[in-house]
Amino acid sequence: MNTDIFDYTELDNQIIITGLKNDTIETSIIIPKKINGKPVTQIAERAFKKSHITGVQIGENIKNIELAAFEDCKELVSVVYKAHCKIPNSCFCNCTNLSEFDFAHVEVIDQAAFVASGLTKVYLPNNIKKIEGEAFRNCEKLSSVDWHAQCDIPELCFAYCLKLSTFNFDNIAAIGNDAFMYSGLTEVILPYNIEKIGLGTFRYCNELSSVIWNAQCGISFECFFNCSKLVKFDFANVETIGEFAFSGSGLEKVDLLQNIRKIEPLVFFQCNKLMSVTWYAQCGIPERCFANCSKLNTFDFAYVQNIGKYAFTSSGLKEIYLADNVKEIEEGAFRSCHNLKKVEWNADCSIHDYVFEKCQKLKEVIISDKVCSIETDAFKDCPNIEITFV
């Protein structure tokens, strides 16, 4: 073995590899066990960064590898990794020709370890105890992941993995924030073993068209934000839905049943394809819940008690019937509903300011004597309005 190709330093009678000598022509290297009779135990920070190596073998003698040791090694295609240490932060970042990696001797994968690498398939065995955030982010060639690691999926782990179309979640208890953001997932099946799903986990998954939700947790903030091909979703096993959870998604029909006890604001904001909603949820309609849903023409309020601020602003509603089950309608609830022509108000509550502001096509308004009061600007900028009291 040629050890003369390495630059190194010595600390406590041990050798730390710091890189290759400038005149080195060898491209497939083996990290030696000893240099000048002294044990080689470490690889220094950025030791081989941007080098032209095509292969590297790292043996059991290596106890520590520092940050970004092989970053930007764009010709690297083969790694044998038997080091007794974690794969460090950014270790193989931007190794664009590294298509495979054997994790059989790995226990810890540090943050961003394989970001933008050329990995196409990943098998993570159960010897892996910990994986840090962004580990495989931007691996644009990654199409297959087999997860048996004894840890949760961390934040941004597979974000921007554009060819990753499927993932088996059977061995997962928790998924971190943005873990699959901008990935190529087309189908997601979330089994009962999942106890936690982080913020924005699947947002901007533009190919995602099918989700089966059996997880033990609620739908988190921006979970399916802007999933434009997600046209349907079964809420039968859902109790809570976080803010912006489906905003900008492709949902066309929504059935919210009695199992749902909490819905945060803006959940369906700007769902431009949403045409039908069934509401039996055991909660009020929150602020801006259906705002900017331009194709939402009708809505049955029979099981609704409270309607939050600007809940339907700029939606496509054409007619509204509010019975006495509705106890509170907040400011601006139906503001700028430009297609709205008729309102029947039998709700047992006041009509607050701006509730129908700028509903310029609104003409026929029938108001029952149950109304306590009508505030001054309730129908502001409704030029064609004709009110009948019954």
Task: Give the SSE layout.
Blueprint: E1 6-11, E2 14-20, E3 28-30, E4 34-35, E5 38-43, E6 55-58, E7 64-65, E8 78-81, E9 108-109, E10 121-124, E11 130-131, E12 144-147, E13 174-175, E14 187-190, E15 196-197, E16 210-213, E17 240-241, E18 253-256, E19 262-263, E20 276-279, E21 306-307, E22 319-322, E23 328-329, E24 342-345, E25 364-367, E26 386-389
Parallel strand pairs: 2-5, 3-6, 5-7, 6-8, 9-11, 10-12, 13-15, 14-16, 17-19, 18-20, 21-23, 22-24, 24-25, 25-26
Antiparallel strand pairs: 1-2, 4-5
Write a concise synopsis of the structure shown.
It contains no helices and 26 strands. With 390 residues, it is mainly beta. Strand 4 and strand 5 form a beta hairpin.
Describe this structure in words.
The protein has strands at 6-11, 14-20, 28-30, 34-35, 38-43, 55-58, 64-65, 78-81, 108-109, 121-124, 130-131, 144-147, 174-175, 187-190, 196-197, 210-213, 240-241, 253-256, 262-263, 276-279, 306-307, 319-322, 328-329, 342-345, 364-367, 386-389. It has 390 residues and is mainly β. It is elongated, with a radius of gyration of 29 Å. Strands 1, 2, 4, 5 and 7 form a five-stranded mixed β-sheet that branches. The chain is built from no helices and 26 strands. It starts with 5 loop residues before the first strand and ends with a strand.
